[in-house]
Structure formats: C-alpha cells, structure tokens
Amino acid sequence: MARKKIALIGAGMIGGTLAHLAAMKELGDIVLFDIAEGMPQGKALDLSQAGPPEGFDANLKGANSYEEIAGADVCIVTAGVPRKPGMSRDDLLGINLKVMKAVGEGIGQHAPDAFVICITNPLDAMVWALREFSGLPHQKVVGMAGVLDSSRFRHFLAEEFDVSVEDVTAFVLGGHGDTMVPVVEYSTVAGIPVPDLIKMGWSTQEKIDAIVERTRKGGGEIVGLLKTGSAFYAPATSAIVMAESYLKDKKRLLPCAAHLTGQYGVDDLYVGVPIVIGANGVERVVEIALNEEAKAGFDKSVGAVKELVAACKGIDGSLG
Ligand code: A3D
Question: Which is one GO molecular function term here (predicted)?
C-alpha cells in the first residue's frame, strides 16, 4: 500500500511541528507548502535528517507551488499572518480571508479528495471561508480548536485533582475565542463528573470556575509568556489527533469546528461541537443536552461567529 500524503499549507511554527509529529508517527509522506521561499525546503531537509536517528521513513518536501500538494489525503492549513500590535481584528480578518481564498482554490484544484483541517485564526470564520473557496464537501473540511481548548482544560483539571491526564476527559464547545464554553458537566475523571468530584471534596466550585476562566484565556496566557508568536506544540498535536482519526478510520469523538445544518439550532455556520471523525470525514455531529448556562454561553459564542462570517461576506462579495 502506497504511503498517504499529508500537505501542510503554511510551514511556520505550527506547520513545522505538524511535519515533525506526522513524520515521527509515520502518518505518510509530507509536503510543507509556504509562500516564503527556501524556508519550507529548509525545514523539510532538516526534518528528513531526523529520520535516521529516530528511525522513521517518510519523504519530506518543501514547496512553493500548489502542484506539489496534488493528490494529498490530508491538508492541514496554518497559512496566514498573526495579529500584530496596532492591527485590528477586522484588518486581520481581511488579510487572512485573502489567504484562505488562495489556499482554498489551491486545495480545490489540486487536492479535492483531501480531508482538510483549518487552524488559521479567527478559526470559525476562516474554516467557513476556506470551505466556501475550496468547494469541497462540508464533511471533509473541519476546524481545529476544540481539541486544543479541551486539552488545556484537561491539563488544568489533572493538575488540580493530581491525577493522570489520561483519565481526564473534558469538552470545550462553541467558537474559539473568549466566548468558548468549557462544559463542566461533561468533564470527568475516569467517568466521575467534575460536579460530583466537587461534592466529594476533591476541589471547590471557586477553583473549578477559575480553571474554566484560565482555559478560556489559555491562548493569551501563552502569547503573553512567549512575547512573539503563539502556542504551537499543543495546537499541532491536537490537529494530528484529528488527522489520525481520519487516516486510520478511528472514529474518535472530538470537539471540532464543524459545519452545522440545524444542529444546536445553528444553520450554515462552523462552530465547535462534538463530532465523530472517520474515513468519511465528519461522520456524525453529536448533539448533547446543554444546561441553561452552557446553552446561553453557546448561543453567545455562535453570535460572535455569525458576526465574523458576516464581516467576511462584507469583505469578499463572492461569499454572499
Ligand atoms: P506562523 O509561524 O506565522 O506561520 C504561518 C505561515 O503561513 C508563515 O510561514 C507564512 O509565511 C505562511 N503564509 C502566509 N501567507 C500564506 C499564503 N498565502 N500561503 C501559504 N502560506 C502562507 O504562525 P503559526 O504557525 O504560529 O500559526 C498559524 C495560524 O494558526 C495563525 O493564524 C494562528 O493564529 C493560528 N492558531 C490557531 C490556534 C487555534 O486553536 C485555532 C492555535 C494557535 C494558533
């Protein structure tokens, strides 16, 4: 059986980490695509030379032309620019929307059968626009945010309870941003819901509330520490989990930005919800019951995504 092909569109901090992880896990051959000349080729060569000591077999190639992604099984998109001081969210939206147009058209033309994972921010609007520009089926285009936000929540909970992260499950739903909704009722330690753990004296409501708040601001905390750039190890690892579920038909149930067609009362928007990812892409959107507070938070988050998508439509008339 021929190796799978993984195209990484954007070879910056997350793109390079994705390439490293995909090679270490032998998920397939890898193309690192970027508009910067030389950089993706340099990273590909460096990573190729990590193969002999580590013992992985994968061909890694750097590219500046979309022809090189031809026939990719998975495309992971991180192309774009980060928000710089003095740049408004709208400025960022306009710039990255243009990037999504180029990337979407490139994928649509050269890798129309791929499973596409978008990471570029603002995530929920960019994945929606990327799908529009690519013309790919909705179930083959998803956004990575929920796995990362849930991982942050799981990490903080594991620390608080002093247990293995392996035994902590958690869900963060809604849009990726300040309005995301960490759902405490569905977060457990080996099946024991967090509210029960509070009753058992493992923690207090105040401490869990503080963890929820820290999760919401998890990205910003890292930006503040790094000074330049944003998180890249955990975002890349989270996207690899999604790619693996598709490539190996694992049918994992993961919180991702998925296209909704009436579920959760939302139509034609990408929002973070639990989905099953298998060989057909998004195989199921899972509708869980939300309590009043979580539902209100989710609706607020959907409102924020709606505004961003409306702004995209305002910038690019073809998205009407
Ligand atoms: P960075 O290291 O700047 O890499 C982005 C790369 O995109 C650079 O190498 C650019 O040269 C390249 N690029 C720019 N325009 C194009 C284009 N038109 N075609 C191809 N490549 C292009 O950023 P990063 O890797 O740290 O982050 C990438 C994106 O992920 C940013 O938008 C971040 O905001 C976003 N991000 C999202 C999350 C989520 O949880 C959703 C988390 C962390 C980062």
Answer: L-lactate dehydrogenase (NAD+) activity
pTM to 2 decimals? Answer: 0.97
Residue 267: inside a domain: yes
Domain interval for residue 100:
5-144
Average pLDDT, the chain: 95
Cβ atoms 89, 119 nearer than 8 A? no
**Do 150 and 134 share a structural domain?**
no
Tell whether 95 is in a known binding site: no
Ligand 1 lined by 123 (C-beta under 6 Å):
yes
Residue 220 Cβ contacting ligand 1 at under 6 Å: no
Which pLDDT does position 239 carry in this prediction? Answer: 98
Question: What is the tens place of the pLDDT at every residue in 167-220?
Answer: 999 989 998 888 899 999 999 999 999 999 999 999 999 999 999 999 999 998
Q: What percent of the chain has pLDDT over 90?
A: 91
- CA nearest 117: which of 108, 106, 130? 130
Annotated active-site residue 259? The verdict is no
127/275 same-domain check: no
Residue 272 and residue 171 share a domain: yes
H-run or E-run covering 129: helix 123-134
Q: Is residue 285 scored above 90 in pLDDT? A: yes
Domain-embedded: residue 189:
yes
Q: Does residue 286 share a domain with residue 173?
A: yes
What is the pairing mode between strands 168-173 and 181-189? antiparallel
Residue 14 Cβ inside 6 Å of ligand 1? The answer reads yes
The answer to whether residue 319 sits within a structural domain is: no
ipTM: 0.99
Q: At what angle do helices 146-161 and 205-216 cross, to 10 degrees?
A: 150
Task: Tell me: is residue 119 an annotated ligand-binding position.
Answer: yes
Please count the structural domains in the chain: 2
Indicate whether 148 pLDDT > 80. yes
Cα-to-centroid distance, 79 and ligand 1 (Å)? 4
